[in-house]
## 1
Amino acid sequence: MKLEKELGLKKGIQVREHEALLNIYFTGDILKKRARVFFKDHGITDVQFNLMEILYHQADDGIGLTQRELSRMLLVNRSNITSLIDRMEKAKLVTRFDVPGDRRYNAIRLTPRGKEVLLNVEDSYMEEVKRIIGALSKSESEQLVKSLEKIRQGLRKK
């Protein structure tokens, strides 16, 4: 369905680039809302899931990642990482520990409970992702990735 119809606009969007940008924004908003519901049903947030995914798949076994590394890899503001980790530590999903040889940094590791929660959600999450992106052909999804990469590159140049 065309965006202008979904939004109930009385007149079409005149500038094609504006229409494209609004489509990205509107689709992202729908995805964010869908993710909120999906993860709420699993007792976590999308950001908590993302952090656990990164710890599970990106950290060397038993070493964890520093808060600085996590803030770079996560889709959240650096100032939010401390409070996010505080909440996850209270929920026993992650644990903090000192980085050997550098007391300025804390490293973060998944707890056994965090790993269990992640693994309980991960399969159904990946199925949902495949279902959503399955509306596109393989070549369309590859083109979407390339197009969004180009947009991000352009944004970073300014």
Note: The radius of gyration is 19 Å.
## 2
Amino acid sequence: MKHPITNVATNLITGFLGVGKTTAILSLLHSKPEHERWAVLVNEAGKTGIDGSVIDQHGVVTRQIPGGCMCCASGAPLQAAVTRLLRDARPQRLLIEPSGIGHPRQILRMLAQPAYQGVLQLRATLCLIDPRVLNERRYTSHPIFKDQVAVADLLVANKIDLCTPQQLGWFDEFVRQHAHPAQTIERVSHGRIPGAWLERPQVHPVDNTEGLPAGHTFYTDSRNFPQDTVFDHSRLTAWIEQLNPERLKAIVKTNLGTRFINYTRGTLQSSPISATKTNRIEIISTTRTRQTDWLTADRAISPQHAV
């Protein structure tokens, strides 16, 4: 007979678009104690489920809630996913990565419901911030960004290796103006978060504020291409850079092999990946992706490889 599932240490890893949440989770998984069972719940804005496929490569049980915010629809997607994940993985730690345009306050409120008392043990919520965006009001004035900062127990400046002294100064000033006394402030590069930070307690209470005012709208669009499609890597990356979306992720077959492509703030990274589900592209942008844009992507298919 299986023992009841109790006191699963649970952390929310939040932050706005492109801040490096998935990279941080992968770093944490590399430092996971061998004897511990961990599980990861990922929410993605698009319908293709890119992040979960990347995390899946690292030997933990992963579940995805694609297609929007996990806290919507009265929390039913989140509750169902948590229940299945606890049942299937029986983890000792649960990491939850909301979408960069998701509402962490509502998620935390759901996790604190009586149904989860004694089952989940909420630990510190981490909010990653890219200091380079802190002079852009479309980020700092966005209600979701504000919500992510407000509920965090740890505010973590990520990608500091890419920051100028002026940008690090923006972070210091942001902390002075917006951090609350209970928050801990940290700085990291490459999402290298020490596992010990996950053990820190949840110190900031989540109030019962209902809803959030609408901020700047982000549009999501996802496409699945046939599995026998092979992209020309050069033409595909040129298309992405010309499109210049707010955020793009893809797992695609190319003439250079299967690649994970990650684009944010004008920077494109392409790395090899072993994945069974491929040829998926997810775009997040402040404008809708036009059909003509996708037709250009179609032209990036390698004629000599397309079947």
Note: Residues 76-89 form the longest helix (14 residues).
